Amino acid sequence: MSNSALGALGLVVVVLLVAVLVLNWRRRPAESVITTGTARGRTGMAVHPWRGHPHIMVAGWLMVVGVAALGVMALGEFPWAAGLLLLGAALLAYLAWARTTGRAGDGTLTLTPDGIHQLYAGSEVFVPWDDVRGLVTTPTDFIVETTRPVVPVHHMLPFMGRRSVVTPEAIALPRRHLPPLPYQEMVELYSTSAAARDELGTDEAVHRARDLLTSAA
């Protein structure tokens, strides 16, 4: 395969990478960020990342195909580089498959009448409201203080890292791209008021959170 063809395909892969990064940074409307959702069979309020685009997975899969094609084309002249490219394509395909099937999760927080649920980087956590003692926010995480240990359930190989805090008294919920909302006040309200928790299964809680997000933006 000619170097010019390899160079052209490499340029296409770079363009796809840039497209993925740009789509991943796009701000989503409040109606797409705050929705109803389900966790463990209970309906609640889902707080999705407020950056991203519905077509990002298409661009991601195209990049996987491009990297794999680049590796196949380079087999004759650059076997070591081809091996690295094919290995990278396999890893990217695994991550794309995990995102497409929902095994990876995107960090969405789902607040139901039963508790807090999050699936992020293949690590699933559920904290019942009765076990919540408080919430500490950091630039990267929501650290939920608990009355008993919470054990994450892992659905993927640990390529994307682990939760930064997993102790008998606290667990971290990564807040990457989650919208600005008064999370501490929300957690305090729902962990102490059974009546307030029941509203999480209704549209009223969703509309209230959307109004807060719109005013904060």
Automatic annotation (TrEMBL):
Q: What transmembrane ranges does the database entry give?
A: 6-25, 55-74, 80-97
Q: Which domain of life is it from?
A: Bacteria
Keywords from UniProt, A to Z, are: Membrane, Transmembrane, Transmembrane helix
Return the protein name. Answer: Uncharacterized protein
